[in-house]
Specification:
By secondary structure, the chain is an alpha/beta fold. The chain has two domains: about 140 residues, D-Maltodextrin-Binding Protein, domain 2, CATH 3.40.190.10; about 100 residues, 3-Layer(aba) Sandwich (D-Maltodextrin-Binding Protein, domain 2). Helices cover about 40% and strands about 25% of the residues. The strands form two sheets. A five-stranded mixed β-sheet has the order 2-1-3-10-4. α2 runs antiparallel to α9.
């Protein structure tokens, strides 16, 4: 009889703990670079299942998100597509250096709607290329990487008149997939989902042609004491998060 009473009390205690955890669940507002949006959706599901907390995302180019934070946008976490702007927030005192880490290594891919005569990269110097899509190098790290590639191939000046610039890498892919552009430089992660992106050829750009796209996350100082932030920080270092990130076409450190 004592055992039954103890077991019943144990159940009540477990229910109480679970109820308390559910009641204290929080919603985090995460500013995320557009290339990582789909990946973060999968991470958000796994994070919620494990912790009960929820992620609400705002997606744009890294430069635009950084500007929004500068103007007081109430984000809890900033997931940049580069290290530069994440580090700038730390130096400016807006983010905590203890909660800053590279969460993904992005890869650049060239895709084309034009059937190449030789290999896919030959499209860049071919006469059939009328419009080439890249993300804006001033605000999007993948656009900056694309510019570096063309400079190393001695094609940047030649292709200036043919460039179509997207506000972010997701819009850049849209230009190519809709055939508004003949070809473009996009993030590999955007090609790894369920959506079928038709293309005549693809070239994964060698990493020695551009500065590695080291995507860094930081926690904004006004949010560093939130339990959900601590839980998200720990989750992003887990094997589960790493598996999701790799499945979306990134590398992890």
């Amino acid at each position: 009889m004592q055992f039954k009473i103890f077991k019943s009390a144990g159940r009540a205690l477990i229910l109480f703990i679970c109820g308390a955890s559910f009641a204290s669940a929080e919603t985090l507002l995460v500013a995320v670079a557009s290339n990582f949006t789909a990946t973060l959706q999968d991470i958000a599901l796994a994070y919620h299942a494990q912790t009960g907390h929820t992620l609400k995302t705002s997606s744009a180019s890294t430069g635009k998100l950084y500007a929004q934070i500068q103007h007081g946008a109430p984000f809890d976490v900033f997931m940049s597509a580069d290290e530069k702007r994440a580090d700038m927030l730390v130096h400016e005192g807006k983010a905590n250096a203890a909660f800053a880490r590279v969460y993904a290594l992005g890869k650049l891919v060239f895709i084309s709607n034009i059937e190449p005569v030789g290999d896919c990269v030959s499209v860049l110097s071919g006469a059939d290329l009328k419009w080439l899509a890249i993300a804006n190098p001033d605000t999007a790290p993948y656009g900056s990487a694309a510019q570096q590639v063309m400079e190393k191939l001695n094609l940047w000046d030649k292709l200036q008149a043919r460039l179509v610039m997207g506000e972010n890498i997701a819009q850049t892919l849209q230009f190519v997939s809709s055939t508004s552009a003949n070809a473009g430089f996009v993030a590999k992660s955007l090609l790894s989902g369920d959506a079928i992106i038709k293309r005549a050829c693809e070239w994964e750009v060698p990493i020695d042609l551009y500065t590695p796209v080291r995507q860094k996350m930081v926690v904004l100082k006004q949010s560093q004491d939130k339990p959900a932030v601590s839980a998200f920080w720990q989750f992003m270092q887990s094997a589960k998060a790493a598996s999701i990130i790799r499945n979306h076409g990134y590398d992890v450190l």
